[in-house]
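My current task is to audit a protein record that another person submitted. My question to you is simply how this chain folds and whether the tokens agree. This is what I was given:
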Amino acid sequence: MKNSFTTGELILKQAETRPGVTTSIVIPAYDEEKGLPTLLDNVFRSVDGICEVIVVDDGSRDRTSEVACAFTKCSVIKHEANRGKGEALKTGVRHAKGDYVIFIDADNTYPAKAISQIADNLEFSDIVYGARSLGRYRIPLFNRLGNMIFQSMIKYIYGFPGSDYSTGLYGIKKTYLESMNIQASGFAIEPEIAIKASRMRLCVKEVPIEYQPRLGKAKLVGPKAGFEHLMTITRLVFWRPSHEDTSRAKSNCNRLRLYQ
């Protein structure tokens, strides 16, 4: 165990990364001892040796870190206190070695088998979303209604082309993620990334997935998360990327939106 270069972070385990690995999988986890082992089993069955895997324990009070450390090829970083999903994702990105970063929630609601498809599509897209086309009935009704409202707002205000901005499974080229200078510390990281991706005119693709039953207790509080999303949508109205970032994205795909 050693202290990270950022105060309040402990590197519990640093797994060896195979030379040439281009994709890092970042898994934010808070009290996920029930769902995390199943997810990691599925992840390593799907992409063993192909991707770097990083679990960021966001100050869990249960055995989340112990569960993650039991997987030989998994790096584990722990926040000494709970700081929020956004902070956990940003910690993972700072430590990621890959050019592509894929995020997946730790509760096993997202299919790990879709990771390789997302990684493949990042070869010719800037950001790839695992869109929940099946299993949406498993999302609580209040959250579904909120997602519909905010999805429409992001589409009409910012021109976001996707159908599921709030999914917990998506990948993005690390260089663009770093350019975004993400400010969100909690669940509002998803709308912030979607909005900034739209303003940067990134090349977006969707991969259809099925939303699976959750393992363990949900941490998202609908009204609180909804308020964070709404504040982010309104706060970023005047945000603009640098000319360099926009030009680079245009040269990559000339604003193509690719769907499957």
About this structure: The longest strand covers residues 127-134.
